[in-house]
Structures are given as C-alpha cells and as structure tokens.
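Reviewer has doubts. Consider these tokens.
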Amino acid sequence: MIAVLTGCSDLLDVTPKTDFTDDNFWKSENDLKGACNRLYEQLSSGGHDTRGDDQFGKSANGTSAGSWTIPAESDDWKNPYKRIFTANNIIEKGANAPVDEKIRDKYLGEASFFRAYNYFDLVCKYGDVPLLLKVFTSTSDLGLKMGRTPREEVIQQCYADLQFAADHLPTRADVQGVTDEFTRRRVTRSSALGLIVRIGLHEGTMQKYHKLGNDTQWKAHLQKSIDAYTLLKTEGHALYADYQALFLDESNSTNKEVLFAKAYGPNGGSGAGYTNHSYSGDCEGSYAITRPMIDLYLYADGLPREKSPLAVSPETSFNNVFGYEADGVTALADGKGARDPRLSLSIWRINDPQDDAAAVVGGVNIGWILSGKGAYKPFDPQRPLGYQQKKAFAGSRWGASRDYTDRIIIRWGEMLIAYAEALYELNGSITDAQLDETLNALRQRVGFSAKLTNAFATANGLNLSEEIRRERTVELMAENLRYADIIRWKIAETVLPKAIVGAKFTADEAYNGTSQAGDSEFVKWLTNNQGIVDGVFVYDEPNVRLIEKADTRRFNVAKDYYYPVPTFEIAQSGGNIKQNPSW
C-alpha cells in the first residue's frame, strides 16, 4: 500500500510545495477547484481494451490469452490508489475550507465521485481490496498495512460516495450552456447516478453468476441500478439522433447523451498547450475488431447469423458481411446480408462512401483516406488483420496526439440497455413496453426496424437474456466494457480460450492481395473451404484470417476471473494483503 503515498506529490502539483503538508492551501474555491482538477488530469482516456474477444492489437494480450503472471508492481493497482489518495486529501482537508457550503460540497462531491470510480475499478479487477478513506502523512501509519476489505463493503462505500455526489453536484440542465472545453466535462449529478447504474448492474450480476452473495444481496444491487436509472430519467438526457456523430459532437447543448467524458483540447490544434490523444491513429494502425464481434450484429430480419436466411455463405467479397457487393455501395440482391445499420456505421468497408476527404460526421472530416495511406484496403501488414473501426474515428485527426475529441465514458445509451438487463436479471422477464423504452429505442435511433418483443423471441427460439446481452455488446462495441461484461456474466471461460479470428481475405480486394495470395506464410493462416487451419477447425467460412490459435490461449477458472495482487503490495502490507486464489 505504499503506492498510495506517491499520490501526495500528485496533489501538491497544484501548489508549490514539496513536502507532505499542505495546510495553508485550502483557503478558497480556486484551491478546491485546482485540487479537483488533478482528478480530471489523472483520469484515463480509455484507449482500446484488448482483454476481451471483441478487439485485438498487434500482439497477444496476456490477460485475454491467459498468459499473464503475478507482477512485482502494477499500475492496475497503483494508479487507482494514487487517485484515491488525491480524492481522500480533498475530502478530508477541503471539508474545512472557509468557503460557501454549497460550493465546498460541490467539490467534495467531485472528489467523492472519483473515489468511487477508482474503487469500482479496483473491485472489478481484484475483488476485495483495502478500503482507505483517510489521508496518510507518514509511511509508519498502520493503516497502510491493512488487509483486504470485503468487496461488498467497498461497493457500499462507492454507493455512499456517489449518493453524496449526486446530492451536491450540478445537474445536466445547470451546465447545458457551458462551452468551455474542460468545464463542460466536470462531473454532474447525472455522472454520479450513471455510475450507480453501472455498479449496481455489475455487482448484481457478478454476485449472481459467481455465487458471491445470497439472493437478497445481489437483488439489492440490481434494484439499486434500477432506482438510479429512475432518478436519472428526470435529468433530461436523450439519445443523440445520429449514432455515428454521437462520438464526435462535443456540444453540451446538442449532445445530451453524454453523462461523463474525458475532456481534450483546446479543439483545433496540437502540440504545446494542447491536451490531445491518439485514438483515431490507433484505430487506423494499432487495433482491429474481431470477426466474432462482427457476427454479433443481427441481420435485417432481427435474427442472428446462425438463424437468419439473410446470412451470406460463402462470401465472395470482403463487403458481403455488410450486405454489399464488392463495389461497397450496391446492396446484395433480395436483401441478402442486410444488417443492423450500426455495423456499417462502426466498421469500414472497401469503397465505403464515407472514405472520402469531404465526408463529414458531427462536424468532423472522418474519411480513412485522410490518414495519409490512401483509401481503405484490408490486410495492410502494418495493421492488425481484422476489421477496422469507423466508430469514433476521425481521419482528419489521425496521427500521434492529434485527436482532441472528448472521450465518452458513460452515456445514456448504456443506461438504457443497463436498465433492460437489470430488469430481466432481477425479474426473469421484461415487458414489451420496457423493451421499447430501452433496446428498441437504440435500434430505432439507427433506423433498424426489427423490434425485439417477447412474441418475436418465442417464435424464433431466441433467449431474451442472450439478446439483451447481444444488444449491449453491439451498442457499446469498442467502448471498453466487453471484458468486464464477460467476467460478470461468467462466460470468459467459454469465449476467451477460443481462437482470435480476423477479417475475410479476397485476393482482388486486399491491400497487396495478389502477392499475399501467393505467399505460403500468409496463406497458411487462412481458413480452407472446411474452415480449418493447420488441421484445426477455426471458423465456418473460407479465407478468414486466423490471428491467434486456440491452443495458444487458455483461461483458468480457478484464478483468471481476478487479477493477481502485485507482490510488492503484499510485502509492503506485512503479508496482511493476501493473494487471490490459485495465483
């Protein structure tokens, strides 16, 4: 736990002190705001999470592949505790600041939100973790050697912190007119309620499927999520009309879907004086989407790939999976291959009409061609060999640290599908009216006319729980919630040990297809007509690129649902912190 102390110097970055005392600092609103600013600076922007089965990078992710080991130290443990220390310092010392109570409580609410946010992050990864709620000014403080606090106690503290935040933070309406690029992303009552929705759903299902608590306990978490959603409904949030532009429009007045986001800017430039990121550049060159993720998108008839007569097999073009001919604009005959519109709004296809220097979404030029590598072609050997992400991509902001688009962390769309899932998990059923309010509203936003109803599910042999989970995964694709979902649903043991499969290869469409088709080293990774690679069945479509073999991936149910605690933390606690089971 000694890592917690390093956060003290982080807090003191806001004032010219170099020791562990800042007693002369807490005198004004500017002091409180400056201290809280550090929490926003420390907030991770959320890049591409390759721990799950939906995204992958240029090399295997050890957590996803099950090849991880116990670290000596880890930022997964250390960084949240740094941020928690910063929050504790604000909550403890800011409470006595001689400013108006309402103003003071607003900043204490911000700190409380971030303390809950970081404790939830720790619980998701480690389970039980030490619950530290005080400031430490000496390495000899016995509190730094405390053991792990039961997760239920930690989560209840998260709820308490978030309720305080919800009671004292401004509402969405209060900040609707804010245009300053960083002030507009300060947390609000909606941020706190939204995080309660997320935590309640996560803990309710985690405890239900992992049998961590009794029925009363996990049901209480789901009810907590439902109740927070009910309160959140009065805050005036709404689905942004354009699913693709949602991730690029940063206006508070027009984009009412955002509940919590990481601010970047000032917009319009890069370099000294700008706080930017490289998300668009990473979409182009470093990360890709798996074929199983593509397959989760429903067909136009509302049925999944394994049931829909619209599914195309065999595919003769890369574009068939999107429902298009090779030209990228002509729909396949008889509605074949037609999909949930979110697929084409989220993934680039060859000859994509938006792959144009003049293509604008949400006021941003998005074309892949603007990345400096010409029009999109799959199987560029410098990229991961999967499907390339269009969602949240801005070609005009491609490159290292040139993207200043705010990164959404919690949004109203997530709240809708979380509410649907919480209702179903709690009651074992969901009404058609509730489906219309949630899941079908998400479909309607993108013009997907197939509605999910109880009768439709029954008639087509669909499992409502699976369809709600599918909707969540599709709606939130590449928003870095998939890994936590497969953990809480207890399906990681099923989906993670499978092969990682990328895109469909056709020689006349690929980046350098003719030479690739003649390269034995390249071809050996493609499925044959029986879907086999190297004697093992991989995927039921020929010429699909295998990325990682199943026999290189594993998941140990006895240990891999939790992260290993770093040995440094165990040693520093004098052995009071115990390692997670089977590590």
Notes: Residues 1-47+54-169 form a domain with the Serine Threonine Protein Phosphatase 5, Tetratricopeptide repeat fold (CATH 1.25.40.890). The beta strands are 55-56, 258-262, 288-289, 360-361, 364-365, 407-411, 500-504, 532-533, 536-537, 544-548.
